[in-house]
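On clarity, I found the account of how folds are encoded harder to follow than it need be. What matters is that the chain and its backbone geometry are given together, residue for residue. The format is easy to grasp once an entry is in front of the reader. For illustration, here is how one protein appears when written out as sequence plus structure tokens.
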Amino acid sequence: MIERDWEFEKIKKYKESSLRENIYNKANVKKYKECPYCGSKKIIKYGKYNGIQRYQCKNEDCNKTFSNTTNSVWKYLKHKPEKWFEFIELMGEHTTLNECAAKLEISIVTAFYWRHKIFHAIENNYKPEKFDEVVDVDTYYTEKCYKGSRNKNYTYADKVKNKFDKMYGLVPRSVSVLIAEEAGKMPLIRRTENNETIVNNFNNNVLKIAAKDCYMRTDYFTNKKLKNNLLQYNKKLSNETKKKYGLKIIGNRIEDKIKDDKKKNIIAYLTAWLSRCKGIATKYINHYYNFYSLIDSEKVFDYMSIFFELLKKGSYTSVNELRKTHIENY
């Protein structure tokens, strides 16, 4: 008698096992030459679990077991691998947590922590590495958001001010954001912390990775203090660089001969992208900026390659670490 499989369960199981084997292939995972706990090089193979190679440390003081996925961003995630793929793809499409939870049949809390584990891993592995030639520097403002906070709320004065600003269309000035962008590269978008100014933000994050003769370009709407700082910086550029871009310093402004060929308004795109989140807590906002920078710099969001990059290089972040990292000090 032929066993009928109307739901194609056998095919589904085969696809899952094949995908798992491909994910945990030697080429796709972090290779351990020593114990991740004690650093001992006395390690032996200790069988496999679900196709994942396990090891044991032979150091008498340690004697712990570990696998190729130990300390990876996917550690302790009990769901099937294909859900991880789908979740990263949904993140790239900017799908809400409720929609992600419904499509993948997981809880909203699980979706929230998955998102932030991925945010932390992406932030550690995908950053602007260097600015070489012409960098467009801009400032962007947003208001503080205490969404999800248990011990912070808007005061009565805050509520009145926010209502007044919205009524008269005033730009919120609670949180300043620095944007630095070079054509063809990943932009840097970072919130200014409470204990620093926008100028310090620029000096510590943009100048730190900028080449020696990198031209910092700005416009009329940039923060005045930052604009003056950029003016002093650009005055020190070499004559060769000034001649190359046709720089002319006239009083407190700089003119150049660089043509803007339909330059994308990154602030408009960023605002539209963030508006789909229906409010983001200020303590998490830098993660969203960094993720947007990655999406903005990619012509096609290849979630498959990002998944394998995070599997190999991404570091594990526990829920407790997430909570400690985001202390509400804003």
About this structure: The CA atoms of residues 101 and 109 lie 9 Å apart. Residues 1-71 form one domain. The mean pLDDT is 77. The first strand starts at residue 43 and ends at 49.
